[in-house]
Amino acid sequence: MKFPFYRRFLKITGWFAFVTLLFYTGICIFMFFFQKNFIFFPSQNIGYIPEPKIQEIFFKTPDNKDLHGWYLDNNAQKTVLFFHGNAGNISRLKTRLEMFQKLHVNALVFDYRGYGKSSGEIQQESDIYTDANSALTYLQEEKHISLENIILWGHSLGGAVAIEIAQNKKIFAVIVESSFSSLDDMARKDFWYLPTHFILRFHFKSTEKIPNISSKILIVHSLQDEMIPFSQSEELFKRANNPKQFFKISGAHNDGWYNESFSLYFQTLQEFLQNTP
Description:
CATH architecture of the largest domain: 3-Layer(aba) Sandwich
Oligomer: single chain
Helix content: 40-55%
Order of helices and strands: HEEEEEHEHEHEHHHEHEHH
Structural class: alpha/beta
CATH topology of the largest domain: Rossmann fold
Strand content: 15-25%
Distance between the termini: 85 Å
CATH superfamily of the largest domain: Alpha/Beta hydrolase fold, catalytic domain
CATH class of the largest domain: Alpha Beta
């Protein structure tokens, strides 16, 4: 007995499955090789020029990249080394610089390679750590600031950078704002349909690193954060050593700290930075 319709159905289904598998494999290959384009969103446009009190600086990395930054000298004992997020550049940090002024701390904000006026391009995870360590070295060697007087402060992706750099160092404090537990966790959330365990080449495994920090640490996150789940900062806090503090803010991922929570946030920062570990 012949079943031409059944055979035709199997043939069409087989071709559909093959095309689907081919398309899915193509997506996986594309994401493997071009994933940095979904992680880093640099801008070279400098839309804000700081006041004359803030010094424009350049410093080199060990692999000969020129990094650009601004240094605020408040003639203070403590100095913030600030790591921004994955988009834009330091020209978006006007309100940050104003806050550092009010906190009466010195501050260095800088751009990773490929951002703003900094040369090069991020090719691998270690590149951003090289840039961060170079900024720390600049503070120590050019500004003669000891580790015990440095505050490593990062927002979003910058929080993961701060955690990496703070490991096994006797720095004054660490502040981690609106950051994630790991990029693996973020990838599983946003790209649940892909085998991220095999594809991901950038990891930023903050939960594995944060127990290596002995400095006091402040973790900040908004319950309304639309990009990074609040629970990921809770996990970071759980794994952090004492002395530690968690501060809940309100509002969006990028500006909730300023638009909706600034007065309480500023007070918390003042108290945190004034207290000795």
